[in-house]
Design a protein that fits this description.
Number of strands: 0
CATH topology of the largest domain: Serine Threonine Protein Phosphatase 5, Tetratricopeptide repeat
Structural class: mainly alpha
Shape: elongated
Number of domains: 3
CATH class of the largest domain: Mainly Alpha
Largest sheet: none
Number of helices: 21
Distance between the termini: 119 Å
Order of helices and strands: HHHHHHHHHHHHHHHHHHHHH
CATH superfamily of the largest domain: GLE1-like
CATH architecture of the largest domain: Alpha Horseshoe
Length: about 675
């Protein structure tokens, strides 16, 4: 029998799944019944109008009826069986009647049950319908609630999005305002920087103009000192042209239209006027020297004429005296008379001081260059020429080309790597170079000589390039040089010779321009370099290069020996004293004032501290003589002026004020290695 589930009154809801299961059970029961009577579908099988025949009933129906009659008493069954067995024919009708009544009763019972079932189903249907309606109303309420919640959520989302949009709008407004403020500040900074650059450029141009006017005044002073006004016309035209350029730049600066290009042009103008001034000074010196030479020649000719007249007069007087003595019988050898006539400070002896065998004037170079310095220069030059001659064949041979290349490579790599980073690093470079000098690279004497001179030239070139830009690097190189000098005195002599030939001011030697000597030959003899187009090296580059050379030389002089070396320094501090004394003894020349001032300042900065410690009494006197006498002498000949002289004067004044000179930057400590 199908199971119908009642609706819970407490919950007020209908379990739809239970109702559906009851219907399924009912459906199964009905289908089972229908399958049994499927063969009797043309008859009425149930209800009071049923025409069902019990005689034609099959076994299954009888079995069903037996099941339906299970409520009969056991006594009746037994009696039926007994009656049936005793009198089958007599009782056949009664049994059928009983069976018919039972069937009718069964059918009534079934009908009642079916009615009850139908009523129950109708009640269930009504309850289900009511539950469905309740469920639908609940669902409707739930949907309405969900709609309201969705609407509220949508409204909240719209509100949130509106708030976010408002926040983004405000944020964008803030960013826009911030960008506008930053752009405004950037524009203000740019404007301020531009104004600052304009001020700096104006100040730079003003300084450049001051320097230009100083050069102009120097040019005017030189113009007044020139003895041939007609030969300086091109220089005056060039200076006037540069002055016009400078005036244009000054107008642009006053109008606020000055650019970086104008500043570069102004610097170039100052450089050009420096070059013009230098060339003009050289030209004036040449012109004045030519006039002086002519005047001196004229004076010399007059003096010679006077001397010849005096000699002729003396000879005549001697002849007369001799004749008188011979006439009085006092015979005296003619040689004695002649010697007595030329004794003392007679003009005949003085004549040999300025005439040669051809009776021509001679320039005595030792009067212009310190004798000892001149001797050192000549010795170094001769030594270097002979040394180069010793391996000339090695340079000309094509077979030794690879050897020369490898030798230069073996020298350049360690020399370029020399630095004061550590004791081990310096020892490594020293040992590699020592092996080259001691012949381990090659047993050929020519190869050893080539290696030594190549190393010497490389070290000198380090002074021109590395030390000129980084002066503190000189002391590491000097330490290696002194150690190598101890091992090979010949290398030390080669190094000195290369220093002195490359830059005679290291001797020091300031050679004058010889008669008939070209400007190029003269400047090359002083150490200037010429480019391929025949242009002489600019003065500022020349001063920077020789400053590096002298600083490296002075660093060698002041560098102490290694800890384990007990011998004396191969080229010690006394050479710095000799150099300074020779500089003061040389007659100053105006055209060399910047060179002298630069080199003296370099020597004092490198060796001044050591000289003050070694010569505590004499060295301050030397500085005082340099400050008081040297400057006064330069002032008399017109050599004071310019940056180098001003820097030297400031340095000397500082030394006098503080009473000491600071050690140079980069100086290695005595126990470094």
């Amino acid at each position: 029998m199908p199971h119908f589930v009642s609706v819970s009154e407490e919950k007020g809801k209908l379990d739809v799944s239970d109702i559906c299961s009851d219907f399924n059970c009912l459906k199964v029961s009905v289908m089972q019944k229908a399958s049994r009577i499927s063969g009797k579908l043309d008859q009425v099988t149930i209800g009071p109008d049923s025409t069902f025949s019990f005689e034609d009933s099959n076994l299954s129906e009888n079995i069903e009826n037996e099941k339906n009659s299970c409520n009969l008493p056991e006594a009746k069954k037994n009696s039926k069986s007994a009656n049936f067995s005793s009198s089958r024919s007599g009782l056949n009708f009664s049994i059928k009647k009983i069976l018919h009544e039972n069937e009718v009763q069964r059918k009534e019972t079934v009908r009642q049950k079916m009615e009850m079932r139908r009523q129950e189903m109708e009640r269930s249907a009504r309850a289900w319908k009511k539950d469905v309606e309740n469920y639908q109303s609940i669902l409707a309420l739930k949907r309405q609630q969900e709609k309201r919640e969705d609407l509220a959520r949508l409204e909240a989302e719209e509100e949130r999005q509106a708030q976010q949009s408002e926040m983004r709008r405000k944020h964008e407004q803030q960013l826009l305002a911030q960008r506008i403020q930053e752009q405004k500040e950037r524009l203000e900074r740019d404007a301020e920087e531009q104004r600052k650059k304009i001020r700096e450029r104006s100040e730079a141009v003003e300084k450049i103009q001051i320097n230009f006017h100083e050069r102009w005044r120097d040019f005017e002073a030189l113009t007044h000192s020139c003895r041939d006004k007609y030969s300086i016309g091109p220089y005056i035209a060039k200076v006037n042209e540069l002055s016009a350029h400078m005036e244009t730049i000054g107008n642009a600066a006053r109008a606020g239209r000055l650019t970086s290009a104008d500043l570069e042009v102004a610097e170039m103008v100052v450089q050009d006027i420096d070059e013009v001034l230098r060339l003009f000074q050289l030209e004036i010196e040449r012109i004045n020297a030519m006039y002086d030479a002519k005047i001196a020649q004229r004076e010399q000719e007059l003096k010679q004429a006077e001397i010849m007249a005096e000699i002729a007069q003396l000879k005549e007087e001697n002849r007369q005296v001799t004749n008188e003595i011979q006439a009085s019988a006092y015979a005296v050898p003619e040689t004695e008379v002649t010697d007595s006539g030329n004794s003392g400070n007679s003009p005949a002896i003085a004549e040999t001081a300025y005439k040669n065998e051809d009776n021509q004037p001679v320039i005595e170079l030792y009067k212009l260059v310190d004798k000892e310095s001149l001797k050192l220069y000549v010795q170094s030059k001769d030594f270097l020429e002979k040394y180069l001659e010793s391996y000339k064949d090695l340079l000309k041979s094509t077979e030794t080309k690879i050897f020369r290349f490898e030798c230069q490579k073996a020298i350049n790599i360690p020399v370029n790597a020399i630095s004061a980073m550590s004791r081990e690093h310096l020892l490594d470079k020293y040992k590699k170079l020592r092996d080259l000098l001691t012949g381990k690279f090659s047993q050929d004497p020519r190869a050893e000589a080539f290696c030594k001179n190549t190393l010497a030239k490389k070290i000198v070139s380090q002074g021109e390039t590395l030390v000129s830009s980084k002066p503190e690097m000189a002391f590491a190189i000097a330490a290696v040089v002194v150690a190598l000098w101890n091992d090979s005195p010949e290398f030390g002599e080669l190094l000195l010779a290369n220093f002195r030939v490359t830059c005679p001011f290291i001797v020091p030697a300031f050679f004058p321009q010889g008669e008939g000597q070209s400007n190029e030959d003269y400047y090359k003899s002083l150490g200037y370099k010429y480019s391929e187009d025949g242009t002489v090296e600019r003065q500022d580059k020349f001063l920077k290069r020789i400053s590096g050379l002298l600083r490296l030389y002075a660093s060698i002089v002041v560098t102490v020996q290694r800890r384990e070396v007990t011998r004396a320094h191969p080229h010690g501090l006394q050479n710095a004293w000799r150099w300074l004394a020779a500089m003061l003894n040389n007659e100053p020349r105006p055209e060399m004032s910047d060179v002298c001032a630069t080199l003296i300042l370099d020597m004092l900065e490198v060796t001044g501290n050591a000289l003050w410690s070694a010569y505590p009494k004499q060295f301050p006197k030397l500085l005082s003589a340099m400050k008081d006498e040297y400057y006064s002498l330069m002032g008399k000949i017109g050599g004071i002026g310019g940056g180098p002289m001003a820097r030297l004067e400031e340095f000397l004044e500082k030394c006098r004020k503080h009473g000491f000179i600071e050690p140079p930057e980069g100086l290695l400590s005595p126990d470094f290695w």
